[in-house]
Design a protein that fits this description.
Domain ABC transmembrane type-1: 306-495
Organism: Lactobacillus porci
Shape: elongated
Main location: membrane
Signal peptide: 1-24
Transmembrane segments: 308-329, 360-384, 476-497
Number of domains: 3
Number of strands: 12
Length: 508
């Protein structure tokens, strides 16, 4: 047992050193800022070679921005559609490769590009001066002339011009140009609130959380066209720059040249106005029909989300349980090094937000381990976090066992390992079972956090349904019910096992 713990401690010490060093050099900071100068840059001229070698172009986007990028239900399966999707396919075709879409939160795209998780960003992104510090851009492929405030139609008489939003609360997508514009050139007293998803912003608008939501022209007109309860007010806030471009990692001049060649061809043939936008409008019209908005048509989405949620939960529980036992024993050890490692691990993991840990494992550790899947990264991060809490539960359980039990076992000739296995652990787990059960239930709900890195669990699938149906509340209600049923059944199972343990101990 001691040898096993020492081996684990050495490995964990090495991992801790790597993680600490990585934190000090910047990837964790890029999670929120997405513009760290310390991120390990992609080597010049390597991305196009990687694309050619792999035979696929990995495009990062946030599929909640119709008509540029959104989702459509095709025979129960999710399909990405929109102007940017068509452009992505055209670029991939000209490069002689397949197009792979990776959907994630908009404010995570820059980090994903800088760390090599995606090859390009094609998500209605404007090449601002701040973004150009981190990545390079193609030429402008589509320019929107104006931004618009989306308001509730009932407030149409209240808000007629930009100045009417003075002192009001206005929402915008975090990381978007509109969010930056309001922060820099907003009206006196204007309160700017940012959320990752536009669907969440519009739900906030309808529920009175926001007085308006600032969106780009195409996006704003799309939502207003498909929701009779919304109206638009043209924005006159100062714009530093307008237009959408393809984001590429620094130093990839050959890839930028290839993308610009495709954009030039599309603009010369006027494909945006003749093909891409009409196709997106047709997809939107199909998606917004009442017959296609029924939640029953999206059953497969929720089933897929539930499957991923269960996989994440079960794997994370096993990782957390194993790590919990190891670190509980290390913290109780008389060895100062083992004790110190356990304390650092437990305190650090319990003292930092789980979402930051998930993003750090995916973007930060993912730089060291190439091609780390988002699902694996999410499981590792949640398992590591759970291990810290389970360790403290197990430690308290071990401490609750009377010392006389240990002394009696050792006097009967049992080794330390056998004493823990046959005497201490059975009693400790019985004492802490309610606490462990609570941790497992919490972990089931925490699995929703991995949606931020594009894992297709329940919350991720809910976002797809919201975007595809233009309905915000109903998909959330269904997801909430699924989580309730899941946790309710898990609670009943844990209570049943607890009664069995109590029954077996009373018989003994």
């Amino acid at each position: 047992m001691k040898k096993l713990i020492k081996i684990f401690s050495v490995l964990l010490l090495l991992v801790s050193a790597v993680v600490t060093g990585a934190l000090a050099t910047g990837p964790a900071a890029t999670v929120s800022a997405a513009s760290s100068k310390n991120v390990k840059k992609v080597a010049s001229g390597t991305v196009l070679k990687k694309i050619k070698k792999s035979g696929k172009l990995v495009v990062g986007l946030s599929a909640d921005y119709p008509p540029l990028e959104f989702t459509k239900n095709v025979n129960g399966k999710n399909k990405y559609v929109g102007v940017d999707i068509e452009l992505s396919k055209q670029i991939a075709k000209d490069l002689g490769v397949k197009c792979e879409i990776k959907n994630m939160d908009f404010d995570s795209l820059l980090v994903a590009l800088e760390t090599g998780k995606i090859d390009v960003i094609i998500s209605g992104m404007t090449p601002t001066a701040e973004r150009k510090k981190s990545i390079d851009f193609s030429k402008i492929y589509y320019a929107e002339k104006n931004d618009y405030f989306v308001i509730n139609k009932a407030d149409k008489g209240k808000y007629k011009k930009t100045s009417d939003f003075k002192g009001k609360t206005v929402g915008a997508q975090t990381g978007s140009l509109q969010y930056t514009v309001m922060k820099k050139h907003g009206l006196p007293g204007m309160k700017v609130k940012g959320l990752a998803k536009i669907s969440s912003l519009l739900m906030g608008l309808k529920s009175g959380k926001f007085d308006g939501v600032l969106l780009g022209e195409l996006n704003a007109k799309t939502y207003a066209m498909n929701d009779s309860n919304l109206a638009l007010v043209k924005s006159t806030l100062k714009q530093d720059q307008m237009g959408n471009a393809v984001g590429v990692a620094k130093g990839q001049k050959d890839l930028v040249a290839a993308i610009n060649k495709t954009i030039n061809k599309c603009q010369e043939k006027d494909l945006f106005n003749k093909k891409f936008i009409p196709a997106a409008a047709k997809d939107m019209k199909t998606a917004t029909k009442k017959s296609n908005n029924s939640m029953t048509k999206y059953t497969s989405y929720f089933v897929t989300g539930l499957e991923y949620t269960m996989i994440i939960t079960i794997c994370s529980v096993l990782i957390g349980l194993v790590l919990g036992v190891i670190f509980a024993l290390m913290r109780l050890s008389s060895n100062k090094l083992l004790h110190a490692i356990a304390v650092c691990y437990i305190e650090f993991l319990r003292g930092t937000p789980e979402m930051v840990q998930i993003m750090f494992v995916y973007f930060g550790i993912g730089m060291l381990v190439k091609n780390l899947p988002a699902l694996v990264a999410g499981i590792i991060a949640i398992g590591l976090n759970s291990g810290a809490y389970v360790a403290e539960d197990i430690r308290s359980g071990i401490n609750s066992v009377n010392i006389g039990q240990t002394e009696a076992a050792r006097s009967l000739g049992l080794s330390q390992a056998m004493t823990y296995r046959y005497v201490i652990f059975p009693q400790a787990f019985k004492n802490i079972w309610p606490a462990l059960g609570n941790e497992f239930i919490t972990l089931t709900k925490d699995s929703s956090l991995v949606s931020t890195i594009g894992v297709g669990e329940l919350m991720y699938q809910t976002g797809l349904v919201q975007t595809a149906t233009y309905r915000g509340v109903m998909p959330l209600f269904i997801t909430m019910c699924i989580y309730f049923v899941l946790t309710f059944l898990l609670t009943r199972l844990l209570n049943f096992l607890e009664r069995k343990m109590n029954l077996s101990s009373s018989r003994a």
